[in-house]
Specification:
The protein is built from 8 helices and 13 strands. It is α+β, with helices and mostly antiparallel strands.
Length: 330
């Protein structure tokens, strides 16, 4: 954890007079940041529930003199620090954790349980690195304010909620982010990576990360006793056919020179061993770089779902229902 924090802060603190001065600041502040990181890691909150996380980060900005607006677009945070004439620089972090049980056995591992949207109690952890992002974000703000005599302009510190479900950015934009606060001349963001060695920083030309979309598919059927499957139209079998057929979109429909990912991350259906249910819910994530690839994937998902729905004998009104996002990250 420590080397990544140090290196990312180094990148963003190019206004410091010397490497020696940067190293001195890091030595003085790393204990504070490490404790903050552990606190955030032990107290994760999932998308749309980031109340205490948001409050904690807003408090960090308030302590160092930012003008802070809380609960902006859900639990979003906007911190503004004006320091004379100069560019408007936006630096953004995400706030939310994931509904996953932590199995790292670390002494500071999360033991938090959360009730998810299905009413189930699930483990909760910062398994995507947002705890790291928030720590770096806070450390950068603290360092830049300490050295405010060495730069001029306006800092816009954004804490974005609900990143994991692809909703938080639009929530903040719809709330009027760029009409109520300065429009940035440039924006800065980062993401921790499990594939880059500790002590290294990754840069790239062009795309670094893909557009992401979350798609929901409700697969209908006709329930029956598990010992009488011939009296059902089994949605578990139907959904399984859909899952397998979705795998052919990237391998057989997308140009091999284009990048795309379709992953089924959730398959929910049934309540008991011997009951065939009448409904199954699938949750997908889609990653693309080009609009034409995205549109083709959408088209093929619908064609596959309609075709399989018809082939198992469902009435057209009961073919799988697909919920596509209206907006996406371009």
């Amino acid at each position: 954890m420590k080397p990544l924090i140090l290196l990312f802060i180094l990148i963003l603190l190019s206004g410091f007079d010397s490497k020696k001065e940067i190293n001195k600041w890091i030595k003085e502040d790393i204990s504070y940041l490490r404790n903050l990181y552990i606190d955030i890691h032990q107290n994760p909150e999932i998308s749309l529930m980031e109340k205490e996380t948001s409050k904690k980060l807003a408090g960090e900005l308030n302590k160092i003199g930012f003008d802070v607006t809380e609960n902006f677009g859900g639990y979003g945070i906007v911190g503004i620090f004006k320091n004379g004439d100069g560019p408007n620089i936006l630096y953004r972090t995400d706030l939310d954790a994931l509904p996953m049980e932590e199995k790292t056995n670390l002494p500071y591992a999360s033991k938090v349980k959360t009730t998810d949207i299905y009413g189930s109690e699930v483990g909760t952890m910062h398994s995507c690195g947002h705890d790291m992002h928030m720590t770096v974000w806070t450390g950068t703000a603290r360092a830049l304010i300490e050295k405010k005599d060495q730069w001029s302009g306006t800092l816009i510190m954004i804490g974005q909620p609900a990143e994991e479900i692809g909703a938080g950015a639009m929530m903040m934009l719809n709330e009027g982010l760029y009409s109520k606060f300065p429009v940035p001349d440039m924006g800065i963001a980062l993401h921790s990576s499990p594939t880059i060695l500790s002590g290294k920083v990754g840069f790239g030309k062009g795309y670094i990360m893909a557009n992401t979309e979350s798609v929901d598919i409700t697969v209908f059927g006709e329930g029956a006793h598990g010992a009488a499957p011939h009296m059902s139209i089994d949605p578990i079998v139907t959904a399984s056919l859909i899952v397998m057929e979705l795998q052919t979109i990237v391998s057989r429909n997308i140009n091999p020179l284009d990048d795309a990912v379709i992953t089924v991350g959730s398959f929910r259906g049934g309540t008991k061993h011997n009951i065939i249910p009448d409904e199954v819910k699938l949750q997908l994530t889609i990653r693309t770089y080009k609009d034409e690839v995205r549109n083709l994937i959408h088209k093929r998902i619908k064609e596959i779902c309609d075709g399989i729905g018809a082939s198992v004998g469902l009435d057209k009104s009961r073919w799988p229902k697909i919920t596509m996002p209206d907006t996406y990250t371009p």
